[in-house]
Amino acid sequence: MKEQERYGYVKLSNAFWRNGKTMTLLRVNPLAIAYYTLLLAYCSDNLTDGVIPDIAIRGVFAIPDEVMDLLVEVHLVDKLGESFRIHDYLKWNLSGSEIEQERAVRREQARKRKQKQRDKEAAESDKSDESVSVTPMSRSSHASVTQRHAQLRTKNLELRTNIPSFPKPLPSQVPLDQYEPPEDLKKEMMQECKISAAAFALLEEGFRGWWSEQDEQEKTRGQWDRLLKGWIRKSKNRPEYQVHKHTWACSHTLHALGVTSTAELNAQFEEPTRGNQLAQQVATYLNRGESEDEAVTRAQEQMFD
Q1: Is residue 281 a contact partner of residue 303, using CB atoms and an 8 Å limit?
Q2: What is the pLDDT of residues 74-110, one digit of tens each?
Q3: How do the domains of the chain map onto residue ranges?
Q4: In what ranges is there compositional bias, type Polar residues (predicted)?
Q5: If you placed Cys at 47, which of 96, 164, 264, 282 could pair as Cys (CB 3.0 to 4.6 Å)?
Q6: Residue 168's pLDDT band (boundaries 50, 70, 90)?
């Protein structure tokens, strides 16, 4: 499907704002209305006739269960086994088959307009070639000019009619295990969501784990990019994706320094605070993603050189 054919709209009744269901959502959980409108747009964009698979609810929008339960409770959404359906969607909106028929009609109309324009341009070009005047000259010269014009006319027609018309290739799909997020996406999300490289790696791992359990395993790279961005924005604050921040007294820092306590570390220095300072430097380098050996070496170089 061409990208421009996806442009469309979804209909809501003018009375939606004062509907009893809407007023209930406004009172109980206004965010549910925002999610509901997203689901409407999703159905229209993907021609689902109002049906939303569970994978979209959880993977694309990450809608909380309590919000979906509320939408079902007020009968704006119906539960269909593992999927959901917008209540009375087809009462206000065209079905997928109706939209496809309209698109086919528009494509045929566009094709006819283009063909008519090409025929018009070809006729004007032929008329222009035939109206070329030749000044009085010998018969041989006149014949030469006429022959040359005929050759040019033939060549022009060949160029117009022999140019192949290739359809725009669709983006190729790749399986999840062959998808790698581009570096600019990593930098963009780290800056936007204020997360470290380690946190990005954790979020990406969770994203891959969730999608690996789904049936749909192939998408275009652009689709994987958009899904990963949405996952990171929704999941960045979840506890399981919070990266441990090393401190001068945490077990990781002490392990890197080969001790089990700050007291043991400080006992190695004449000035006890020097041990804490070294531990703080090691923690700083660990937080930057360096290995324990690299962190200790750089911290010692900074303190003692």
Answers
A1: yes
A2: 999 999 888 999 998 888 888 888 888 877 887 888 7
A3: 3-92, 96-134+145-162, 173-241, 251-304
A4: 131-149
A5: 96
A6: low
Provide CB contacts within 8 A for 29, sequence distance 6+: 66, 67, 70
- Three-state SS for the chain is CCHHHHCCCCCCCHHHHHCHHHHHHHHHCCHHHHHHHHHHHHHHHHCCCCEEEHHHHHHHCCCCHHHHHHHHHCCCEEEECCEEEECCHHHHCCCHHHHHHHHHHHHHHHHHHHHHHHHHHHHHHHHHHHCCCCCCCCHHHHHHHHHHHHHHHHHHHHHHHHCCCCCCCCCCEEEHHHCCCCHHHHHHHHHHHCCCHHHHHHHHHHHHHHHCCCCCCEEEHHHHHHHHHHHHHHHCCCHHHCCCCCCCCCHHHHHHCCCCCHHHHHCCCCCHHHHHHHHHHHHHHHHCCCCHHHHHHHHHHHHHC
**What type of residue sits at position 153?**
R
